[in-house]
Amino acid sequence: MSRPHEFEILFDGTPLPCRDGWTIGAALTAAGVRSWRTTRHGQRPRGLFCGIGICFDCLVTVNGQPSLRACLVPANPGDDVRTQEGTAR
Amino acid sequence: MTEHRVDLAVIGAGPAGMAAALAAAEAGTRVAVIDAGVRPGGQYWRSPAPGAGPFRPATLHHGWRRFTSTDTRLTELAGTGRVLRLAGHHVWSILPAGDEWSVHCVLGAEPRQHGTPAPVTVHARRLVIATGAYDRQLPFPGWDLPGVITAGGGQALLKGNLVVAGQTVVVAGTGPFLLPVADGLARYGARVAAVIEANSPLAFARFPRAVLGATGKLGEATGYAGRLLRHRVAVRHRHVVLRALGTDRLTGVLVGKLDRAGRVRAGTEREIACDVLAVGWGFTPQLELPLQLGCATRVDVDGSLVVTVDEDQATSVAGVWAAGEATGVGGADLATVEGRLAGLAAAASFGADEVGDDRALRRRRTSLRGFASAMHQVYPIPQVMLERCSDETLVCRCEEVDAGTIRRAVVELGATEARIVKLLARPGMGWCQGRVCGFATACLTARHAGRPVAEADLRAFADRVIAAPTPLGQLATWPGDEPPAGDGG
Ligand SMILES: Cc1cc2nc3c(=O)[nH]c(=O)nc-3n(C[C@H](O)[C@@H](O)[C@H](O)COP(=O)(O)OP(=O)(O)OC[C@H]3O[C@@H](n4cnc5c(N)ncnc54)[C@H](O)[C@@H]3O)c2cc1C
Ligand code: FES
Fold first, then answer.
1. CA of A58 to the centre of ligand 2 (A)
2. Which ligand sits nearest to residue B14's alpha carbon?
3. From first to last of its 489 residues, what are the pLDDT tens digits of chain B?
4. Alpha helices of A1-89 — where are they, by DSSP H?
5. What ipTM was estimated for this complex?
6. Which of B163, B181, B287 to mutate against chain A (most A CBs within 10 Å)?
7. Total number of domains constituting chain A
8. N or C: chain B end with fewer CB closer than 10 Å?
9. What's the gap in Å between B423 CA and the centre of ligand 1?
């Protein structure tokens, strides 16, 4: 069966619309979400910054695996995306 | 582990790498073209996956036909076995092995993700480095607020996903690249509240020869300016962003106008409401691989560290050529020309019989480089951004080091070199390994030490033992005693 062009992913339990070929970062941005992580020391919110895998600001937990770059990870139907505190290690 | 053996490995499949691979392959060389990205084209020709929506290249791209014809030729040559196209391959290390290089790659869109394919090693007798660049950043209060993104990041989100970064966007920084970013966002439905450009294109009048040598470049910029006018986007020259406003996300920016001396003119500060700020101050070449290989570097007109190359794009290391932004930021046209010359030179080193007359290419490179040099002088880093960098301003976003900590390391602890500041105050020691704050830390260190930025300051933030973050398990083949800390995880 071919993949649907449009599907949903979960962000902290809430379904967000997503298109095939989007990264997790693109899906969150399209839904108006601007941050999905807090920093280790100052607990400051962070989201997308460089958009190309350079800065590591966009770290996120996907399907239980922490510290993945949201701007690089392709979204898949039903992905369970969660905010993360610090480096969550 | 999978292994491939080729004559030439080209690292990077942007405009420079694609041109190099095609030129070398057409001259008879067996080439592997390796790129971290899942689709070819690099930053300039980044394209969305088919599912992302209807994509009309003309709305976002220049020279798209050059891309598709190069891409088609490479695919044809891949069919004959002459070219090996390796997408989603992040090169993290290149080591000499006898008379070859071993190019070590980790795979996947995000190689740290579980379930990515096993690592790959490409053995090659020659290398072309075409790793491009990333946005150069300067710190200012609030630049770490969610909603502040890089200009290139906004462009990548749009070109790669057809997603606009926000509803109301301010595009800021310096350089002609701000115009296509603003134009793309406006075309795809964002309201671009303003383009805040620190310099003025009128300064091109000082470089008539450079401009005449590359007339197409100015035409491109005029085209963007005209379209921005139609979208009612105000381009404010000699203005800078002073502060990003908001508590947990961006709500606006404070901007000010610069006077003749480059200071913020009193009474010109004003706020612009926006939910996204896309900011960039030129580009920083991506040099960890050429530095690993021991290639000589120099400081370019724009203050960036770049790989030194000769007339044939050869680096100081035998068997290694470099092309594109890695040898000096100059845009996609220059990258293409340099890539072609590098590919031809690498092919010629194998005794390729038909390399042809490349004099026209060399002339074109001279004029495009002349234009790039003028561009760097027209769009310099505004020193006022560094002057105004208050102690509380965050500099290193990863380790959360502020400008005061860097100042004290220099002024109170006597660390007058960026390398020592990095050890004492830890800027550039976190996840990104100084890719984002390295340039600014080098500038601030030199400033507090009362001297100009030196090549060593920039190198302190460009030398990295691993060029791409790697799942630690995959470093089992690491040749030293233990894998270096920092990038793994
Ligand atoms: C985010 C961003 C967006 C940009 N968008 C535009 C634009 O829209 N218009 C414009 O005129 N200019 C743009 N630029 C400027 C850009 O530098 C272009 O001038 C042009 O793409 C340069 O071509 P290049 O071949 O030198 O490098 P690039 O196009 O950057 O290509 C370099 C390639 O090398 C790959 N690479 C780097 N390191 C490794 C590694 N270790 N392993 C494997 N692969 C690696 C990268 O994935 C990339 O695909 C952008 C720059 C950035 C950073
Ligand atoms: S936004 Fe910079 S790494 Fe993802």
1. 5
2. 1
3. 899 999 999 999 999 999 999 999 999 999 999 999 999 999 999 999 888 888 888 888 988 999 999 999 999 999 999 999 999 999 999 999 999 999 999 999 999 999 999 999 999 999 999 999 999 999 999 999 999 999 999 999 999 999 999 999 999 999 999 999 999 999 999 999 999 999 999 999 999 999 888 877 878 888 888 899 899 999 999 999 999 999 999 999 999 999 999 999 999 999 999 999 999 999 999 999 999 999 999 999 999 999 999 999 999 999 999 999 999 999 999 999 999 999 999 999 998 666 678 999 999 999 999 999 999 999 999 999 999 999 999 999 999 999 999 999 999 999 999 999 999 999 999 999 999 999 999 999 999 999 999 999 999 999 887 887 766 555 544 443 333 333 333
4. 24-30
5. 0.96
6. B163
7. 1
8. N
9. 30
SS3 label, residue A81:
strand
Q: Which of residues 226-265 of B touch A (CB under 8 A)?
A: 248-250
Give kind and range of the element (H or E) at residue B179.
Answer: helix B178-187
Contact B135 A20 (CB under 8 A): no
Identify the H or E element spanning A62.
strand A59-62
- Considering only CB atoms, B146 lies closest to which of A35, A69, A73, namely A35
Where residue A54 sits, what CATH number does that domain have?
Answer: 3.10.20.440
Cβ–Cβ contact B52 with A under 8 A: yes
The answer to whether residue A75 is domain-embedded is: yes
CB B178 within 8 A of CB B171: yes
Interaxial angle between packed helices B438-448 and B418-425, expressed in degrees from 0 to 180 and rounded to the nearest 10: 110
Taking the CA of residue B110 and the nearest CA in chain A, the distance in Å comes to: 6
Q: How far is A75 from chain B (nearest CA, A)?
A: 11
Ligand nearest the Cα atom of residue B35: 1
Find which of B157, B277, B470 to mutate to test the A interface (most A CBs within 10 Å of its CB). Answer: B157
Residue B281: CB atoms within 10 A of its CB come to 27
| Cα distance between residue A33 and residue B336, in whole Å | 37
Is the C-beta atom of A56 inside 6 A of ligand 2? yes
- The single residue listed with the structure tokens 């008879």 is B28
Has residue A71 been placed in a domain? yes
Domain membership flag for residue A89: no
Structural domain for A41, as ranges? 6-84
Say yes or no for a CB contact (<8 Å) between A45 and B146. yes
The sign of the CA dihedral B288, B292, B295, B299 is: positive
